[in-house]
Amino acid sequence: MHYISLQISPLTPPRPRPRLGDTTTSRCHSLPPEKLEIYKSLEPWVAHSILPLLKPTDKSWQPSDFLPNSSQPSDQFAAEVQNLRDLSANLPDDYLVVLVGNMITEDALPTYETYINTFDGVRDETGASASPWATWTRAWTAEEKRHGDLLRTYLYLSGRVDMLMIERTVQNLIASGMDPKTEKNPYMGFVYTSFQERATFVSHGNTARLAKENGDPLLARICGIIASDEKRHENAYIKIVEKLLEVDTTTAMLAIADMMRKRITMPAYLMNDGQDTSLFSHYSAVAQRLGVYTAGDYADILEFLVGRWKLEGLEGLTDEGRCAQEYVCGLAQRIRKLQERSHERARKIKPLSQKFSWIFNKKIIL
Ligand SMILES: [Fe+2]
Ligand SMILES: [Fe+2]
């Protein structure tokens, strides 16, 4: 099978990349201080329009809703565990690699809360700030926490994977962190989170579909419920960017273009099990081959966001903003062309295979 890395070329045009705000500010703080007021003024809107997208705890699913109940008598608990193991027995090894990669990505949640708290104007200044922005971030984190917990426990009980190597990968990943080059800038940051939440929605949705096809309806429900959370979160971040486009059109448009020029890197791109130095690209290649998350999905997400944010019809942009608009609106098509060419090349290359420590060093075709 062919190998198509998700890290495809950035399609960077020769013209200089537009910068947000004052070019003398550090790349680490590209939000001009006067723009902080915009985020302050949006607080009532966040409280009314974004916080209701969260689910109260007593209405939220919990991992224990999907897992064997350990408070039952031992034989009943053992029977439920056996049922889970029987269902997971037929999952193919390549599918498990992708499921583990997704689980590890979810389990590095501390990195993502830290990351969102880098954004100027919206970060949680105290750790328990009453600001609606901070309230959202903490509650979002609390909802997300269930994803890694549920997938991890399922995988542990299945007996199909090497938990020690998975746990080492998680520890290394959290220690490495991530830097999607959003410069502490909330315009760029919310573009990144919009894209990412949709990417995880697509990915968990596809692992749900494949679990069902492989005869594991329990795992299909698990991945499906996680995908539905991602969809709700995607909706929140998309609405935030939509609002930014309304109140500060050119800056928001430039931020979208800037992030797309840099390419949206996956949050777990620094994953490392201490053995495979290209672990993330190998996991991505298997995800691509199984159709869980592909270069085509990347283009689809971009196209979806362009439509959802009505970028083609944006008015009132500066010249620089119009340039950014033109670049972003034509990008999905250019990615697809590039993808076709890389498919052509890949067809001529012999299939590669790779050992994955997560599944006891079994070899998987990339
Ligand atoms: Fe998640
Ligand atoms: Fe998420």
From TrEMBL:
It is found in: Plastid, Chloroplast. Its cofactor is Fe(2+); Fe cation. Fe cation 1 binds at residues 106, 144, 147, 230. GO terms for biological process: fatty acid biosynthetic process. It is an enzyme of class 1 (oxidoreductase). Fe cation 2 binds at residues 144, 197, 230, 233. Residues 1-28 are annotated as: Disordered. GO terms for molecular function: metal ion binding; stearoyl-[ACP] desaturase activity. The keyword Magnesium does not apply. Its EC number is 1.14.19.-. PROSITE patterns: FATTY_ACID_DESATUR_2. GO terms for cellular component: chloroplast stroma. Binds 2 Fe(2+) ions per subunit. Introduction of a cis double bond between carbons of the acyl chain. Homodimer. This is Acyl-[acyl-carrier-protein] desaturase.
